[in-house]
Fold this protein.
Amino acid sequence: MPRVSINGQQLEAAPGRLFRVPRRRSRLPALAVGLLMLWLLTGCANGGNSPLVGLFSDTLVPSGDQAERAAEIPFASLSIDTGERSGLVVLGASSEPDTFWPMGHHGLVSLRHDGLQATAGLDEDLLDTRYRHGGQDALPPWQQQTPGSFDLTRTWQDTEGLMHSLRAEGQLSCGPAEQRELPLATLALEPCALTLDWQDGSTTQGTLWRDPDSFHLWAGEEQAWPEGPTIRWEVARQWW
């Protein structure tokens, strides 16, 4: 099983996992995550494609074939729609709490604690997502028994290559569990309404679907930033 070493961190470079990556790995800092994404997208210094890009460049399965294909693939998989690209992807690398999902054609989506963290290779890219509470970095709200208010800061790059950063005051409210159809199963999940009031006066909304016991997210839909792309994802075969 190939591995990637970034700043001393050993990452499983497997084509999906059906079990949890051991917790002995420490949480990657944002810089290390960025370096991994850059390595995935640009390849080695000699100009060749990285092993992961070569291995997963053709894993984006068209939307219409997702359920059938997901049933055939015995690896962790995710249905993703970024607006520019949509289809079924296979887990490329993981280091808890982060997972990395190559989309082919130098595209990548990363999740943290199952929630949207960053993208790469799109016309506009989400570079980083940070949750804070009481002025300190905090776990995302869906991992709390009773979610409430929180602060979120996102950094992104526009089509002209300019970087932007904006803070939002967020609110997450979860309702009673209801049946949600996923690519490989129908599960009882809590729909959680996400509202972000950004410091520029904009408001964006989304919905996250979480397991009422483990608080894992099985699906989500949210606008990454004001006037930014709406990104949707659903777990086909879980990795935890």
